[in-house]
């Protein structure tokens, strides 16, 4: 059996593998995106008091902890039957905007940009964030400044830049001070300026994206607040492959529409619609679903994006540009929130009395896509059952099929060159998968790409 191992694949969050199977002629017979670590957070939470979930679940991931924090908080609101006051809701949304700004800036500038600004054919030692800093130091410095704002926003509202703890049943534990608001507003305005400048780089990709890379045809799912881009409020909308509306949901009824399942080659769960249609989530899905971003500069960028790709697109690498448009929109929304002195109001939490409902489902948009936290509790509020559906699981099918599509295009004579391997990585990287959210493992296990054939040989790049 021939094996070609490429280790590690760079610029993703977490550890995974790609296995490519060849026939006797050295042609690709099949290929799979493979994750062999096991996630255990659903079991960790059983027996815990449900009000502890917003403090426990951010430990799932250091890249997108605010998303888990807020989804858990929304679920506990339902269990205690409380609605946060307006200021509390606004602070939660602002916290999630900080998460988006930090995560999207990290991915676009530091994980995806080297492929486009340096070139996917460039040597691996140059095709990375250090190579980008050397070639374009101004871009690297501005990317760091924007990420700093996202983290500072998370710290000011969530209590800590990583693993926040201020969201709790009924709202937030503390208000935002006026001095912090002033500081954050200046940073938000600077970040918006950087986002607007960076669009000149991002828009340059509109004509360069190969629409065949990682080809897959799916339905889409994402949150929409009355047709406007939203990360926290609104119903989850579903559209078909042609953009036709399939329905929507906002809570426990998600089980009527989403079917989770597994495949033998991966411990990472899969998800599809109960109709049998496969779907995708995240920036590409959200921009396919919404009518507008709801902010001036992001709406202008969205118009250019749709001019290049159409009203609905299946183009996998368009995820990178869609992500940038969301990044810009979140900067604009952060400026809007922080410009309003009402964000420092003292009324941030509705008092909680006792468990009113035995089940709560919190749904928000995380940077990578729709996130579901589903808790069932006993009469004392102790968690009896927990189910988490993260974006990477919902995009698992598309990544798996996209990997096979790209492998068929780039594997020649049973060999994978460095350039070919990176193009396979680019398909995975477009989804910005967070394997940390999807699975958990002990130790350091980088992603591997293996090609197997009937005769035993091993090559390592």
UniProtKB/TrEMBL annotation:
Its cofactor is Ni(2+). Keywords: Metal-binding, Nickel, Oxidoreductase. The keyword Metal-binding applies. It holds the Pfam family NiFeSe_Hases. Belongs to the [NiFe]/[NiFeSe] hydrogenase large subunit family. PANTHER family: COENZYME F420 HYDROGENASE, SUBUNIT ALPHA (PTHR43600), F420-NON-REDUCING HYDROGENASE VHU SUBUNIT A (PTHR43600:SF2). This is Ni/Fe hydrogenase subunit alpha. It comes from Methanoculleus frigidifontis.
């Amino acid at each position: 059996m021939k094996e070609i191992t490429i280790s590690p694949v760079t610029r993703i969050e977490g550890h995974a593998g790609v296995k490519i199977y060849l026939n006797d002629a050295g042609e690709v017979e099949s290929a799979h995106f493979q994750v062999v670590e096991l996630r255990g957070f659903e079991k960790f939470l059983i027996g815990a008091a449900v009000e502890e979930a917003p403090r426990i679940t951010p430990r799932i991931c250091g890249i997108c902890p605010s998303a888990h924090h807020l989804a858990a908080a929304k679920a506990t609101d339902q269990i205690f039957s409380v609605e946060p006051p307006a200021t509390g809701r606004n602070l939660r949304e602002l916290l999630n905007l900080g998460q988006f700004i930090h995560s999207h800036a990290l991915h676009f500038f530091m994980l995806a940009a080297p492929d486009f600004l340096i070139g996917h054919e460039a040597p691996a030692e140059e095709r990375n964030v250090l190579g980008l800093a050397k070639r374009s130091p101004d871009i690297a410095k501005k990317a760091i400044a924007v990420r700093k704002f996202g983290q500072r926003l998370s710290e000011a509202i969530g209590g800590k830049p990583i693993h926040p703890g201020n969201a709790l049943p009924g709202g937030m534990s503390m208000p935002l001070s006026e001095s912090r608001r002033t500081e954050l507003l200046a940073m938000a305005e600077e970040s918006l300026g950087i986002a607007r400048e960076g669009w000149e780089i991002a828009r340059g990709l509109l004509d360069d994206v190969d629409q065949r890379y990682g080809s897959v045809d799916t339905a889409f799912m994402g949150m929409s607040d009355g047709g406007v881009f939203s990360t926290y409020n609104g119903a989850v909308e579903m559209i078909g492959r042609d953009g036709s509306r399939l329905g929507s949901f906002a809570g426990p009824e998600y089980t009527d529409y989403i079917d989770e399942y597994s495949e033998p080659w991966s411990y990472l769960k899969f998800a599809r619609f109960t109709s049998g249609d496969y779907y995708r989530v995240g920036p590409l899905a959200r921009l396919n679903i919404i009518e507008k971003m709801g902010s001036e500069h992001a709406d202008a960028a969205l118009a250019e994006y749709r001019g290049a790709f159409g009203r609905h697109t299946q183009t996998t690498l368009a995820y990178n540009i869609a992500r940038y448009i969301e990044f810009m929109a979140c900067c604009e929304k952060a400026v809007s929130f922080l410009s309003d002195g009402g964000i420092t109001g003292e009324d941030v939490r509705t008092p909680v009395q006792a468990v009113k409902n035995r089940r709560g489902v919190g749904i928000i948009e995380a940077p990578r896509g729709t996130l579901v936290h589903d808790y069932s509790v006993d009469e004392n509020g102790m968690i009896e059952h927990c189910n988490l559906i993260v974006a990477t699981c919902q995009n698992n099918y598309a990544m798996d099929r996209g990997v096979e599509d790209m492998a068929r295009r780039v594997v020649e004579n049973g060999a994978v060159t460095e350039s070919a391997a990176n193009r396979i990585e680019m398909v995975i990287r477009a989804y910005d998968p967070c394997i940390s959210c999807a699975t958990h493992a002990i130790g350091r296990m980088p992603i591997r790409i293996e090609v197997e054939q009937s005769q035993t040989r091993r090559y390592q790049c």
